[in-house]
From TrEMBL:
One of its GO terms (cellular component) is bacterial nucleoid. Transmembrane segments: none annotated. GO terms for biological process: DNA recombination; double-strand break repair. Belongs to the RecO family. The keyword DNA repair applies. Keywords: DNA damage, DNA recombination, DNA repair. Involved in DNA repair and RecF pathway recombination. It holds the Pfam family RecO_C. This is DNA repair protein RecO. Residues 1-81 form the DNA replication/recombination mediator RecO N-terminal domain. InterPro entries: ARFGAP/RecO, DNA_rep/recomb_RecO_N, NA-bd_OB-fold, RecO, RecO_C.
Amino acid sequence: MSNEKTEGLIIRLADFSESSKVITWFTRDFGKITSLAKGAKRLKSSFEAAIDLLATCRIVFIRKSSGGLDLLTEAQLVNRFRPYPGNLSNLYVGYYIAELLDALTEEYDPHPELFDAACVVLQHLQEHDDYQKSLIIFELTILEEIGQLPQFQYCTGCSQELGQLESYLYDANNGGLYCQHCEQQRHGKVRVSRGTITILQKLTVENTLLSQRLNLSLQQQREIRQLLSTTMSHILGRRPKMAPYLQL
């Protein structure tokens, strides 16, 4: 057993006993971990100010070598998630982010860039009453980090250039788009315009800088949302639990 220090985001909470909780964290240095917080439910617990879904904390935990639960010993609150006042959608987006981090990452598989991306989008949800652009950036980041980012540059059927079409057929099963020749032999349900694909190509290369000045039309938002929602459902093997609340 060893003491470890890191910064973590609470992505799931569960009762363990009358006084304790099991907390799933997505941490910057260790990836996803699951810890036991003894006495966390007591009124005068040393954790009482920190334990809240989507809270970011500096934590100290004892890492168990046998595969059991890690033991949380310290948790200092850095930021408590509070969505933009009066915007319930931003709260649901926060829950959706927690769901993706829990479902799509593995124990002790660190992704510091993904941790930073999660903190950025949660901060945006606290300060602004819109979420579309920041959520798109996060979803593209998590797909890239887990090796599931769709191919937006070349045809997924023949690996050749896509060509200049007005729109492209997207197939989540094969993770990409089809050129005019290959799409005649495929059956996809999502069609995305050339302008939207151009934006996605740029976002996957320079997403942070571009997102700050990116303006998406309603059509582009709908197309990207349909593509990403279809992709997430395919990877998860089910529709995300938060999808009905966000109309994903």
